[in-house]
Structures are given as structure tokens and as C-alpha cells.
Amino acid sequence: MFDSLYELISNYTYQTVALGSLLLGLISGVIGSFTYLQRQGLLGDGISHSTLPGIAIVFMLWQSKNNALLLIGAAIAGLLAMMFVLNIVKYTRVKFDASLALVLSVFFGLGMVCMTYVQNMPNASQAGLTSFILGQAATMLRSDLYFMLICALIVLSLAMLYWKEFQLFIFDRDFAQSSGYSTSLINGILACMIVMGIIVGLQTVGAILMCAMLISPAAAARQWTDKFPSMVILSALFASISGLIGTSISSLVTQMPTGPSIVIIINSLVIVSMLIAPRRGLIAKVCQRRQNRINFNKKSLENVLGN
User: Fold this and answer.
1) Which of 210, 220, 229, 250 could be disulfide-bonded to 256 (CB atoms 3.0-4.6 Å)?
2) Is residue 262 part of a domain?
3) What pLDDT digit, counting tens, does each position of 149-158 carry?
């Protein structure tokens, strides 16, 4: 058993994918806390699906699977989708969820059209663009790790630099605006961080499952604490642990994809947290209701006996 474990840990592919999953968990855990508390959980889903046309169009223009160029195209498409969503909400009477659904459907539809066109190209077999839909962590290289590390440093630096502004923006946007803070700037920085986190996760979990990486860790962390800093730390911790466990499972089990394994683990943590969390968990609530009922009956009996 220990020999197998040592062989797994010393494997180059496992080390690369595990470090990538760890960095993805760190980034998505931090960013997901912001989106979760803003009640914009589906924003990550919409933006991740909107990156597909950027990836396909870049490949059509350059005829080469250069990860850097493809991710730049994905980032541009994601930022455009985010800009459309925010401006539709700002300048029209369309609500956020309807705006997101509209932009998601248009961008994803355009992406699938472009993907179909790419598949009919002579070098389509070398493109491998479908890996960005469901993820293909096994193809991760050291250069991808460096890119993810840079993104993680940028996201963490922005989170620390604008920590106070983000808290004001999330919990009391009107007060932040009246205090002189530029809500447009803060919203733009958050949007860039979300897009950056999604770009990092495209190769590991793919565009379809990236929403779970942004929401599930924060949802699990929210069950355990009422303090924002603690929630961000727990969310990053849950996502990172899930990344490591999911990567290990996919390495030990034949034909087990890494991305879905990570998502299953993090959602299992959500279920466990919803059940056994000390204050918000279902078991704790049932016990509290039972205790309240006992206390009420005892007090009622005392009142009856006292009269």
C-alpha cells in the first residue's frame, strides 16, 4: 500500500495535476465566496459557457492549439459576456437572471456553431478543443502550472488589496457608493477575477463543471461560519482539499476523469456540511427544535402547576 502511494506521489503527471487542482481550488474558493454572497451563483456558469466562442474563434484564426492564445480568446469572450450582462441590467429593465440566461444562450450557441465548424476543418483532430468543455487535466503541463500560479497570485493580491471595498460592495452597496467608492470599478475588478478563475479551471474541470467550483466550496463554508474572513479561508480550504482528493481518485481508478471526480468530492462536502454543521446543519436544527419543544412544554407545565 505504501509502495503504491509513494509511486503515485512521485509520478510526474500526478504531481502536475495535483498542484494544478490545488491552485484551482485556492482561486475558485476565494472568488466563489464573493459571488456566493452576492447571490450571483449562476454568473460563473454563464461566463464559463461564454468562453467557448473565444476558444474556437482563436483556433480558426491561428490554426494552432496554443494554450496561451486559446485562453486569451476565452478570457476576451468571458469579459465580453460579463460586460453584456452587467450593462443589460444597468441600462434596461431586464433582471439579472434573465440577462444572464440571454447572454449565456447566445454565446454558448455561437460557441457550439464555431466548434462544429472547427471539427470539419482538416486539422480538427489536432485541435482537441472539446477538452475545454469537460476538462482534461491529464494534459496539463508545467507551463500551465506557471500560468495558474500567476493567476493565483493576482487574484489573492487583488482580494487583499480591495478587501475592505469588496466587503462594503457585497454587504451594503448603497453605503459603499455613498462613501465615495466607485462601485463600477469594484464590480469590474470582481468581474475580472471571476473570468480569471474560470480561465484557470477550463483545462482541469471544463466549462460545464466550472460553476460547481465557484459555488460549492463557498456553500459548504457558509454552513460553518458567519464571519466573512473565515468563510473565504474555509472555502479555499475545501476546494483545495477536494482538488487533491479528486486528483488522487482519478489517478488510482482507471478511466476516472479528474474534473468530475473533483466536483463530486466538493459537492459531497456540501452535503455533509448541510447535515452536520454546528449551527446551520439540518441535524443541529432538528435537535434545536426538539429542545425548544421540550423547554416550551416544561414551561407550560410549570405555569399550569403554578396556577
Assistant:
1) 250
2) no
3) 888 889 889 9
